[in-house]
Design goal:
five-stranded mixed beta barrel; alpha/beta; disordered N terminus; 31% helix; 7 helices; Rossmann fold
């Protein structure tokens, strides 16, 4: 499979080929929502009805994933009655992918017909009112990754200068808050800062991010939301606080701890997402 070498191929052609490969497996399914299932949420893909699963390696131009907790499988079917397509794992920029390559799956889901995109991630808590295990509805983000996936020639169908004022759709955030309240799932809300990684941040960097208005920090999601904005998709997202950010706790940071926390709160996280997806068609 040629991924990075395919940079010279027009983006539209790569997206069309990948979307055609997905349709060959999923038939006439017309998904209305796409889900990017980050660390700890991948098992939600196992709850799809009439599910069709496709390993990433079977899809042309698809970026591979190499992080523990990301299985690297596309799932299509029905979640809580809603036709949907989900990514069990994502490619990260710190793995060496360009932002354009890492976001190709979002473009493919748009080509399949989705109207809304749900994004999720594991994040470090910066806000002093947050602690590991909390779920945070993303209200906005800071792009500090050093890349923008829209850089370069305009891709057909993209808005060249997308307005990111409401990047995390206000109506879908209201739906998520109402759903969380009715389901009895505690839900914080705040700003997500996306950094390149893969090293965790220093305490000085966390102090900087706090002063910039960040409530949580991670290494993903932002490029996907930017592309979704350019494509006119309505986005919403939830971060799982898996650890305190550097300098807030004396404990060292480790990916093992991240996985342990996502496993511990995964049931609650999945319950919230299921409930929101079950109501989303009426909101689109």
């Amino acid at each position: 499979m040629n991924v990075e070498g395919g940079e010279t191929m027009e983006v539209e052609a790569r997206v069309a080929e990948a979307a055609s490969a997905v349709r060959a497996r999923t038939g006439d399914l017309e998904p209305v929502v796409g889900l990017v299932l980050g660390s700890g949420l991948g098992s939600l893909g196992d709850e799809f009805e009439e599910a069709v699963t496709v390993p990433y390696e079977d899809l042309p131009h698809w970026p591979p994933v190499g992080v523990a907790g990301h299985s690297g499988t596309l799932v299509a079917g029905f979640l809580q009655g809603a036709p949907a397509v989900a990514l069990k794992g994502r490619a990260h920029l710190y793995e060496g992918h360009s932002a354009g390559v890492a976001t190709l799956p979002v473009r493919v889901m748009a080509a399949l017909g989705i109207r809304a995109l749900f994004v999720s991630n594991a994040a470090g808590a910066i806000n002093p009112d947050f602690e590991p295990g909390d779920l945070m509805l993303i209200s906005d983000h800071l792009n500090l990754m050093g890349q923008n996936p829209l850089t370069g020639p305009v891709v057909a169908g993209d808005d060249r200068f997308p307005d990111m004022t409401d990047a995390y759709d206000s109506s879908l955030r209201i739906l998520a808050r109402e759903t969380a309240l009715s389901a009895g799932v505690p839900l914080k809300e705040g700003v997500y800062a996306g950094l390149l990684g893969p090293s965790y941040e220093t305490p000085a960097e966390i102090r900087m991010l706090e002063r910039m208005g960040a409530d949580a920090v991670g290494m993903s999601t932002v490029p996907e939301v930017i592309v979704a904005g350019a494509l006119g998709l309505r986005c919403f997202g939830v971060s799982c606080m898996t650890n305190y950010a550097a300098g807030i706790s004396p404990e060292p940071l480790s990916h093992t701890d991240v996985m342990e926390v996502t496993e511990r709160v995964g049931g609650q996280f999945r319950a919230l997402v299921r409930a929101v997806i079950g109501r989303i068609e009426s909101a689109l």
